[in-house]
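Subject: Sanity check before I submit

Could someone independently write out the structure tokens for this chain? I want to compare against mine line by line before I put it in a report. The sequence has 295 residues.
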Amino acid sequence: VTFLRAWLRRLSHSSIRSRVLVIALLPALLAELGMAAYFTSQALATAEDALHARATRAAHHLAETLPYALISGDVALARHLLETETRNSQLAFARVTDPRNRTLIDTGDSLGAAHLDDRYRQRVAILLPGTVVQDNTLLPVKTVPASDLLGEVEVGVKLDQIATSRHDTLIHAIFLMLLAMSLTGALAWRLSNRLAGQLQHVGRVVGMLACDDLTVRTQLPPEGEVGALAAGVNNMAEALQTHRGELEQRIREATADLAAKKDMAERANQAKSRFFAAASHDLRQPLHALSLFVA
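---
Independent answer below. Compare away.
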């Protein structure tokens, strides 16, 4: 958990592509793990049920076919039936015992079955043909008259078949998970590349606007959040360009007004200078004549 937190903390400072990949892959990975666990358990349960059902069918089939061979004492026929059922049902062993639990006929690894727990075993009573098993209301098990019991047939199947099925199911689940993760990652990478490219385009346009190029515009469709962002940048650029034009117009008008006022001031200054020059000349003429008269 600490490693995951540290990795996510470092990832928060990375690019948006990495964040999109994590957002897409993490839920997909959790969902695929859950589905793989569920379907694997279901497959293993189905395989185990099929194994048990196969042993049960084989035991009941032998219990139905062996009475005639046991009654007639035909050991060869009974052994042939056991070997045939063992081969057809893929049994680990099969044996027939008498009512005293003594082995009459066996095939397969029946000796190891008494000591190993890697086999599923099923026992069925062998009854005389036409015997009906009655329920005992006092006991929770079905009772069989001792005179009608010919013995029991016991079959076993190896549980390593379930281990093989588990291995195959896990291999298939891992392969499907990798395939799904690859497809999800490719889709997320494509989407993140598209999103990152659009954001980079908007960023370049904003950078050019900051460099006083107000004529540039984004070239993205207005659909979606990124499209709305691009449209907002375009609207901002339009507003800035309009405001800049208005400011330039105002500056030109103010400059022209100042130039006109300056020209008026210069003309007034020139008129004042001419007035003072004329007045000075007019004042000096009488004074000069008076000074000549006095002299």
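---
OP: Matches mine. For the report I'm noting this point. The beta strands are 93-97, 103-108, 119-127, 134-135, 142-143, 149-158.
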